[in-house]
Amino acid sequence: MTGGIYRVVGGRCYRGHQPGDLFEAKIEHRAEARAIGRGDIELVERIRFTVQPGSYNLPKGWLTTGRVSDG
Amino acid sequence: MAKRIALKDFIEVDGVDLSNLARQVTFESTDDQVDVSGFNPTGSSEFLAGNRVRQVTVEFFVSRGSNEVHQVIFPIHDGRLTSTFRWRADSSASVGATNEELRGDVKILSYSEGGTRGDVETTSVVFIEADADSPLTFYST
Lengths: 71, 141
Description:
Radius of gyration of chain A: 20 Å
Strand content of chain B: 35-45%
Number of strands of chain B: 8
Number of helices of chain A: 1
Structural class of chain B: mainly beta
CATH topology of chain B: Pnp Oxidase, Chain A
Structural class of chain A: alpha+beta
CATH class of chain B: Mainly Beta
Largest sheet of chain A: 3 strands, antiparallel
Strand content of chain A: 25-35%
Distance between the termini of chain B: 19 Å
Helix content of chain A: 10-25%
Shape of chain B: globular
Low-confidence stretches of chain B: none
Number of strands of chain A: 3
Largest interface: A-B, 15 and 16 residues
Order of helices and strands of chain A: EEHE
Low-confidence stretches of chain A: none
Shape of chain A: elongated
Largest sheet of chain B: 8 strands, antiparallel
Oligomer: heterodimer
């Protein structure tokens, strides 16, 4: 799965987005290549989807104590 | 629920809205009828549902411009690729319980084109369910 910000450049809606719209999506790489090749969309920016600090909570006690092996 | 005249259907193939290049759509879900009848006093038959096949047939106006029918559909067939498919009855309304959307991964196992003098060129394309990861079924969200 490939992610990016795309612009709809063809004369038709692409995945519900109007021509001229910018949208962010994960698109399977072969589907992305077909869409770009057909002139449906263009890649504006490649995105690496990552978990942002602060957007999650770790289980209580995690990373506050060192891991101890059983061995 | 009101009766419907098909006018506003939404059809999307491989992400591309082909609604205004289509004029007919038919969804079909079929289970094999497997005979599991045994001898019995009434001679009745007993059946179970076997393999299931789901497919959608769409009649398109053949057009060869950018992002149009030939350019979108033929490469998917030619490359034996899997693509996405979506259909809902009312394109002007959002997906919901009264306007469910049929969607899933499909393959196009055959493709044909051709014209008759003086007639509009159309082609019927069968989109058949491709896998269990994204089965062709109706969604209300």
